[in-house]
Each structure stands twice: as structure tokens, then as C-alpha cells.
From TrEMBL, chains A, B:
Assembly information from the UniProt record: Homodimer. Probably interacts with PlsY.
Keywords: Acyltransferase, Cytoplasm, Lipid biosynthesis, Lipid metabolism, Phospholipid biosynthesis, Phospholipid metabolism, Transferase
EC number: 2.3.1.274
Taxonomic lineage from the root: Bacteria, Bacillati, Bacillota, Bacilli, Lactobacillales
HAMAP family: PlsX (MF_00019)
Protein name, entry field: Phosphate acyltransferase
Length: 347, 347
């Protein structure tokens, strides 16, 4: 398999991206890479070009660029060229740590939607804490769409199911709808409609509404929500975890010698705690609902996160997730059309 | 001042409620109490009835009762009778640790809205970590309304401003709109409308869009959002903080003698950390936009939280917050009407 990489995206590009790709190349013998970017800059960091091809990109989409406009106008940018390579089939997946909006736009407009999926959704895998038999869950959408309809959230459940099954290898994943209470009638009219659609779907193992307080406790294997709420919840979890860690640090620093000595003895434990909350270990955010893997990592990603994310992309391809999802949508075209009509008529 | 207390609400009622009220009575010489509930049960725990009057309530609204229906039908319940005492002016505020929906319904339908405020919003005060000159912020709405309009969020900013000013004593509080990015054009159309309304309002110290990742870092003194997102964010912060604390505990327990010994030395530090994240220290959730303080604490509240919450209610009354807010709405009736019209016409 071949992965098209935006070598210029992210705060530490191209250095950390190139180093991460070399780590991945050494870890995964079956993966080839195309690095899109400024050839001279990439060569500065590339030690060994075995299974790594450099493709010159004259332009770069900056973090500050207006995403859709940038993708339309910067035709020679590393993002557009990498996404185009996937569209044309010379690469199997697209990876970038760059401008999120531009990556989503490139996925949507260049790689293209799976026929039957109305809106792709962005997925992140998050840790589950202190639960036997579950160490992570998937949340979708975490920000691809700020304005989400009933049909979109219903389709997120289908996509999330295939991701949890094929990539996270969860058998018959439990799907939960993020809501402001567990009762079936919680939330606004749209949430009640989504709840009833999922409850009625025999192909979905729906566990009902889940509250954000219970996500890290393993309330579900797949949590579906609109992109606005999902984004807010994801960033709340991130921010709170970071605040707790800094709170621990400062509290210990202000607590005198005994505490400092105690902290020394806990060094390994604290390291483990940081690791458990670091969800970059699960790779990046995946745009589900497009024809090939489009995966985005934090702009602050270092080489090891890049490598983890390549491992994740490799798993998506090897697991046949996207063809399987595609086949399901084709086989169930009539049911999915009936659901669309039922939503329209209920308006 | 006199506070009407639902003595039967909460997991540990009436015991912890009664004990908390006695603590508050002893702490605040200027506060009197009316305890609504089953007289015989209350008397079991009441040591000294100085400034505490018991009012018999034959019915109890259970946690599982359908809120609006319960408030309409259980006329002799402690919640309805306590709220009615406030409506009739025999008490100045209403406190309960019971059924949240029923408390909100009693506030809305019995105590009543401030004229000019279209929808009351539920407010919670949360901690800010590791920032000089800011130890907390206010979020509104955290769940009174699952279906929120532009006008409501705009009015939350006004209410939140008065709460931060009068109760948290923040001068010229910074108001932020919770959004999925800091740029002015983030979010859906409604968020852009709210953003522009707040930016144009000379009486609001608007700091723009804030992301949930930055809330505990003190992004604003008042964070306004729709009740659905606010509820999800609040519960994400709670859940993540709890998961982190349990993660620390289990990691240490699995880390052998050295770590356990280190943890012993850190006991005080950990205690302090738990305290910093425990926002019950700031009291309960306040329904803003009604004619008198209507305050709700966690169903799991113990006596000390009940006491803290009474201190908070005392501050709301003493600070004149509600009359001040009311006066502002009266004085700016024309501007507020213009804003309503502008929202309607922009549809």
C-alpha cells in the first residue's frame, strides 16, 4: 500500500513529519510513501529514501488560510497534490498534520464522498479509564460539520460502527447517542428523531443516549453526536486532562520537600498517567465517509505521533473498512432511502 | 432574609439538608429558613430550630417524576410549596437538591420570569486552574433549555454579566461565546449572529469566541452557550476530572511500594487537588432570569455543600443582583426590543 503524505503540514514540518515517516517505513515493511512538499527542505531531513518518494509541491496551505478557498486556489499545494494522488489512485490514503479545514475540504472535494453518505464525519479515538475489556472509544463527528442534520448523525453511527469493528477490532460495537440525559426523550426534536432511528435499526447495536460524564467510563464503543457538540466535548476532555496534570505539578511544587520527594517516587506512575490520557497513541482524526482514508493529526505532532498515525492508516486499509462500509451502503440503498424519506416527511 | 428550602430533595434528604441548614444558620446570623417537607422526618435531624421554621409538605417529587407534570399535579410537594412561598413573598429565595427538571419548572412557572427575559438559563461556577487573578468562571446555560435561540444566548450574556459582577465580584466581566474556534465566523449561522450581537453591544465586555479547551485556563469570566452544549461541556469537565483522579489512584495502587510510599507523602497535595476541582465549593447551579434566586445543588450534596450553597444564595440576595438585572432590562427595553426585531427580520 502507498500513503500520500503532506510533508509541509504541522508546527514542526517538514522535520518531524519526515522523521515520523522514516520511523513508520522502518516499522511497516508493506507501506510505501509519497512525500509532497518542498523537495530541498524534505531532503534536509530524509536520511534514507527507501520506499519514500518525494513529489515537489510549490505551494503550502498555511494554518491561517481560509480552507475551502485555499484548496480551490492553491492547486500546487502539498495538501491538494497529495489528495489528488489518492483521487487518481496512485496512493491509497492521505495524511497531513496541517490546516484541518483544508484537509477536510480536500477530502470532501478531491478524494470525494462515498455515494450514499451525505456528509463525512470526523472521528477521534479516546481512552477509556479503569474499565476491563475496554480501553478506548470512538467519537464522531468531532468537528467536520458545525451544522448537522438528523440524517448525518444517523449515518455517523453506521460509519463509526465500521471503524470500531474493523480498525479498533470491537465485535458488535455498542453505539451511543451523546445527549443531555439517558432517557429516550432527552434533547431537542432532532435528538429524539436520531434516537428513534438508531433504536429501530437492527444492524446497529444501539445502547441509547449517553452523557458526556460517562464517556471515559466506557459508556459506549462509538459515540455519535453533531460536529459542534462533539468538538466542544473533545476539547473539554483535552483541556480538563491538561489542567489536571498542570494542577498536580504546581500543587506538588508548592507543597514542600516531603511532597517533592513523594513526587519523585511517583515519577513512573505519573508518566504512565500522562500516557493513558495521551490519545495520540491511537493516531489521528479520520474523516469517515470519503472514498479513501483521510487522516489528520494535531499540528503539534512529533515524529512518534506521525508514526502511530501511519500505523492507524495501515490498519484502516488492511482491515478493508472503507470497501466494507461502501458495500453496506450499496446493499442497503433502499432502506437508507426510506430513512431519508421518513425524515423529510416528519418535518 | 428568608430562604425557602426543599428539605426532601437529594439522595441524603432530609438528613444532610437539615444538617447543612443548621450549619448555615450558625454561619449566617442574618438568614432565616423555612424547611418544607415531612415534619416528623425533619424533626428527627433538627437539633435546634432557632431561625428555622418547619412547613409540612404531604407530597414529595421523586427524582424519577416527569418534571413539568409533577409540578402541575403535586401541589402539596415540598418543591411546589417552597417555590410558592417565594412567589408570595414570604421567602426571598428557593433552594433544593432534588429533581432538577422539577426545580427548573417550579422556578419558571411558579416563581416566574423577569419581564423581558425570554428564557431563564442555568448557571454553574467552575474553577480556573493556575491563573493569577482568576479562580473561577461562570457558564450559562448548562441545561435549562435543550433548544436554544439566538436571542436566548444573547440574554444569557446579560444575566451572566450581572451574576459575575454581583455574586463573583468580577469588575467588568469578560464575556465569551463558546464556539468550535476563536475566529468570528466559527460555528453555525446562529453562533455568528450571537457573536455579532455581543460584539455590537457596548454594555458587554465581549472577548469573542472561546473554545472549551481554554475554559479552565480562564478564557473568560462568563461563558455563554446553548443549554445542550453547555450541559455536555460541564459533564465532560466533571467526568474527565473524576477519571483523572481515579486513574491516579489506580496507577499508584498498581505501582508497588515505592509509589505507594510516595503517594502517602503527597496525601495533602492530592487532597488540595481534589479541592481545587470540587466546584461545589462555589455552591449550586442558579436559574437566572427568574424573579428570585432559584438554586439547585447536586443530588449527592452533603451538609457542607448545602451550607456553601446557602452562602451563595445569601450573596445573590445581598448583592442586589436580581433587582439590578431587572432594572437594566426595564431601562433598556427599547434596545432589547430592537434586538428581538433584528433577529426576526434576519430570518
Amino acid at each position: 500500500m502507498k500513503i500520500a503524505v503532506d510533508a509541509m503540514g504541522g508546527d514542526y514540518a517538514p522535520k518531524e513529519v519526515v522523521e515520523g515517516i522514516e520511523l513508520a517505513r522502518d516499522a511497516y515493511a508493506d507501506v510505501e510513501f509519497q512525500l509532497f512538499g518542498q523537495t530541498d527542505q524534505i531532503k534536509k531531513y530524509l536520511k534514507n529514501d527507501d520506499r519514500i518518494q518525494i513529489v515537489q509541491a510549490d505551494e503550502v496551505i498555511e494554518m491561517g488560510d481560509e480552507p475551502v478557498k485555499a484548496v480551490r486556489t492553491k492547486k500546487q499545494s502539498s495538501i491538494v497534490l497529495a489528495a489528488t494522488a489518492v483521487k487518481e489512485g496512485t496512493a491509497d490514503a492521505f495524511f497531513s498534520a496541517g490546516n484541518t479545514g483544508a484537509i477536510l475540504a480536500a477530502g470532501l472535494f478531491i478524494v470525494g464522498r462515498i455515494k450514499g453518505i451525505d456528509r463525512p464525519g470526523l472521528t477521534t479515538t479516546l481512552p477509556v479509564i479503569g474499565v476491563k475489556n475496554q480501553d478506548k472509544f470512538v467519537m464522531i463527528d468531532v468537528g467536520a460539520n458545525a451544522d448537522t442534520k438528523v440524517l448525518n448523525i444517523y449515518q455517523y453511527a453506521l460509519m463509526g460502527k465500521y471503524y470500531a469493528q474493523n480498525v479498533n477490532q470491537v465485535e458488535n460495537p455498542r453505539i451511543g447517542l451523546l445527549n443531555n440525559g439517558t432517557e429516550a426523550d432527552k434533547g431537542d426534536m432532532n435528538h429524539r428523531k436520531v434516537h428513534d432511528l438508531l433504536a429501530a435499526d437492527k444492524d446497529i447495536n444501539f445502547v441509547g443516549n449517553v452523557e458526556s460524564r460517562e464517556l471515559l467510563n466506557g459508556a459506549a464503543d462509538v459515540v455519535v453526536t453533531d460536529g459542534f457538540t462533539g468538538n466542544a466535548v473533545l476539547k473539554s476532555i483535552e483541556g480538563t486532562a491538561l489542567s489536571m496534570l498542570s494542577l498536580i505539578k504546581t500543587t506538588i511544587m508548592d507543597s514542600g520537600t516531603k511532597a517533592k520527594f513523594g513526587a519523585l517516587m511517583l515519577k513512573d506512575a505519573f508518566h504512565k498517567i500522562g500516557g493513558s490520557m495521551d490519545y495520540s497513541q491511537y493516531g489521528g482524526a479520520v474523516l469517515l465517509g470519503v472514498k479513501a482514508p483521510v487522516v489528520k493529526t494535531h499540528g503539534s505532532s512529533k515524529a512518534d505521533t506521525v508514526k502511530n498515525t501511519i500505523g492507524q492508516i495501515r490498519q484502516i486499509i488492511a482491515s478493508n473498512m472503507i470497501p466494507d462500509l461502501n458495500q453496506y451502503v450499496v446493499d442497503h440503498n433502499d432502506e437508507l432511502q426510506q430513512i431519508k424519506d421518513s425524515i423529510k416527511s416528519s418535518k
